[in-house]
Each structure stands twice: as C-alpha cells, then as structure tokens.
Amino acid sequence: MSHTRKKDIRTCKQCLLRDFDKALYEEQIRVYIDRLSDSDKADAAEYEKRLSLCKACESLLEGTCLKCGCYVELRAAGKRGRCPAKKW
Ligand code: SF4
User: Whose CA is nearest to atom 3 of ligand 1?
Assistant: First the structure.
C-alpha cells in the first residue's frame, strides 16, 4: 500500500520533530486536555489568559516553554499548573 493513513503514524520519545504529524499531535494534546476532569482543569478564561502570557513570552518556542520543557498548552490546562517564571 502506498499511502499512510493518519492514524497509522506513530511517534515515540526517540522521534525527531520532523517525524511528527503536526495535526495528529495537536489532536492528541486536545484529547489529553479534554480528558482532564473539571476539578483538575483550569477554567476557560484562566486557560486563555495563561496562553496569552505564554505567547508574549520570550521563552516560548514552537509551543514549548524553554524554561521547563513543557508544551504550554498542556501545562496551562491543569488547574494547579504553574509558570516556571511565575508569569501565571
Ligand atoms: S510557561 Fe511561563 S516561562 Fe514558559 S513560555 Fe509560558 S509564560 Fe513563558
């Protein structure tokens, strides 16, 4: 078979960024956030405020915080999530 279906693409901790299917990766992040319980999830306004601060931060690189190595959309999603630079 000459084509690869989207769900057949697998990445692992030894994959390079160029190996990632960006759309699939974003979907996996979204699924992870959606599975957080309401009691563990930051409310929508707080989440957007955090991401706005990240977007203006010099430590953001391609969705990753250079201070802690986290994907900021995941880190900001948790109610108890904290910015390592104390911006939120
Ligand atoms: S988590 Fe904090 S230090 Fe990291 S990118 Fe966001 S605002 Fe910047």
Answer: 85
The pLDDT score that the predictor gives to residue 7 is 55
Asked whether residue 35 is assigned to any structural domain, the reply reads yes
Q: Domain count of the chain?
A: 1
Could you read off the pLDDT of 43-63 as tens digits, one per residue? 999 999 999 999 999 999 988
Place of tokens 């000459």: 2
Pocket (CB within 6 angstroms of ligand 1)? 53-54, 57, 59-60, 65, 67, 72, 83-85, 87
Residue range 6-25, pLDDT digits in tens: 555 666 777 777 777 888 88
Please tell me the residue having the least CA distance from ligand 1 atom 4: 65
Domain encompassing residue 47:
6-75
Nearest CA to ligand 1 atom 1: 83
Residue 86 within any structural domain of the chain:
no
Using CA atoms, how far apart are residues 29 and 27, in angstroms rounded to an integer? 5
In a domain, 85, yes or no: no
